[in-house]
Each structure stands twice: as C-alpha cells, then as structure tokens.
C-alpha cells in the first residue's frame, strides 16, 4: 500500500481524507492544515493524525494529495516533488499556466508522477460513452450551479467551466484555433456567468456555458458527430446515444425512419450503454495509485491539467477584451 498524506482539510479535503482512509490501495498517514483551529477539530472528530508542518507530512508519505486553495498549489507541489513524492493535485492544477508548466518540469526532473483532480473524467455517465465519442464536430455544455460563496474568489471559468474544458479536450483531438467569450459579474467581483465558443483546427466547435447564480443545478453536455448524438448528464449520471443508419428496405412497424429532402431514408436507433455507478473521487485517487504501482501514465496527467488551464485563461482573456 502507498502511504498518503493530505494537504488541506477543508470541505473537499475532508472528503479526500475519508475516502483515502477507506481505500485498500492507500495507507492514510495523516494531514496538514495551516489553520490550527480547523486542524484540531478535524483530528478530534475523525481521528486522523494531524501534522504540525507541511514538511513533516511530506517526509512521512509516498504520495501527497494537494487539496489546498489554488493559490497554494504550486508551493505545495514544489515541496512535495523536490522531496521525491508523487502528487495528486486538485483542479485547477495551479494559479497560472507558468506555475503549471513549472510543476511539469519539476516532476520530470525528479521522476515522480502527478495527476490532476478533474473528477468528471471519472463520472460514470461520461466513462460509459467516452469511447463512443468519435470526432465530434459540435459540442454544447451547460454547467449551472446555485449560488455558493465558496469559490467566488475566482472567475466561474476556473471554478466550474474548467471541468467541461478538460472533458472536451479529452475527446477532441485537435488544437484550439480561437476562443470568443462573454461574461457578467452579477454578485461577485469576478464573473458569475460565462459563455465561451471554442473553435478547433479540425472544425469542431464547442459552446460552453457556466453559471454559479442559477435557480437550479445542471451539468449536461451534448456531443454531435457523423450519424450520432450523445448526451451526458453528469449530475443525474445518465447518458443517451442516438444513432442513425441507412433505413432497411422494408422497415419494421416500430422503426423510426426519417427522410431528407433528397429522399434518403435513415433509421434512428438507441445505443445506450449501461452506467455503472461509482464514487468518482475514490476512482480518480485509486487509479492514480494504480499508475504509480504499474509505472503507467495517470488518466488525467499534469499536461492535461495544464492544457485545460491554458484554454481557461484564453477564455478569461477573451472576456476581458
């Protein structure tokens, strides 16, 4: 088992602590949180070992799970990597692209592995259809959340939209050609709702909307490709695949047939895969343990996290212009 420690015991940090403590692939050594009152409370309530310094925790483990505010990601990652420890780091990978690139360089120099916590890659609705998403040419996503003061210190692009940016980049195998975006700051000092249009060199277009001031929660993506429409509901964990094929000469009574203006007939049918429910956070943590043990590439690499951050800042730059 890999010895693991958690940096940061806030809302998400406590979830990571609980899951790592349950995991059969890790031995939870303890945690460090700079806020002494919170650290003492977490240690007393859950029985996790509290470390007095970040350096002491890092020295005691094989893997460092970084669940601190984004501004501290680079500092924590640097200390861990230079100590020869593998790192799991929550999204976004860093506060700036330059910091993210420095983390990659450090990891390569010291020969350690890193994974970024883009948890929607492990959402069962997405994993059920990912292999069916082939060369999508139009993508539309909506990630809408009710207002929560936590996270409003950063633009909604870095808080929410980056989930969809990463998922889109994982299925569109093409470079970003251009980005256009608009946003509104309704409650916060930074934008609360943003719409972005990303054009890729292969002609694919992604239209992404994220909001943290909605009346209800929604996390849906739709992928359109040749002869297929694929929808993913990350929130309700359901997916749908609608395909088209040449209609049979003699359709059945219940066949769904469409005919275009040229007289070509197509049959619509459903190709819905089963969704195996899981704990996505536990899965991302445990697949990282597998990557370390088998010396293979993590599912969400440091490079993936950096590219998602790069595109996020392209969107932010477009908003500001």
Automatic annotation (TrEMBL):
Q: Which residues form the Gfo/Idh/MocA-like oxidoreductase N-terminal domain?
A: 2-118
GO function term, MF aspect, one: nucleotide binding
Q: Which SUPFAM superfamilies match?
A: Glyceraldehyde-3-phosphate dehydrogenase-like, C-terminal domain (SSF55347), NAD(P)-binding Rossmann-fold domains (SSF51735)
Domain (GFO/IDH/MocA-like oxidoreductase): give its ranges: 156-216
What's the protein name?
Putative oxidoreductase
